[in-house]
Amino acid sequence: MKKKGKLIIFSGPSGVGKSTVRQEVFKHPELNLKYSISMTTREPREGEVNGVDYFFVTPAEFKKAIQNGELLEYAEFVGNYYGTPKAYVEKLLNQGYNVVLEIEVVGATQVMQAMDDYISIFLVPPTIEELENRIRNRRSEPEEIIQKRLNKAKVEMDLKNNYHFVVINTSIEQAEKEIVEIIKKAQEK
Q: What is the pTM of this model?
């Protein structure tokens, strides 16, 4: 019988580099990782595939999933719902995969309240000033949005002690190395 995989909650403030670090960690086949696909009510973008990029559903289907307790977490964002299907995650865990949820803090909190067995990792910038530089260097948002992101990040950083591990992202390579070690140790248990 296959050993059940671990649920890995990967969180941190916007702009800290979660996606970049996650992509590097996924280059380690020995970790047996699968990325959790979210359910959403938004329309697919060009090239997106149902069941690969997202599980695309109608608002009525999403609300039914909420009512039936079929989601580990969910949130509404700019008029669309996003959530993590419980059955999909359980299926992957039972197949022996370590399932990664890259998720914002509110969703991570919901999952940590709903699940017993998980590893939670919070990625933080070396300083709030460094986070501000990273967000500004994207050059993709007006000042008002940048300020909202920074204010939200300060609130989120206060929640880092709710996580099992806090990794300071001083470099992608260093953060990747630390997270790989965390997952390897968890696999041994």
A: 0.87
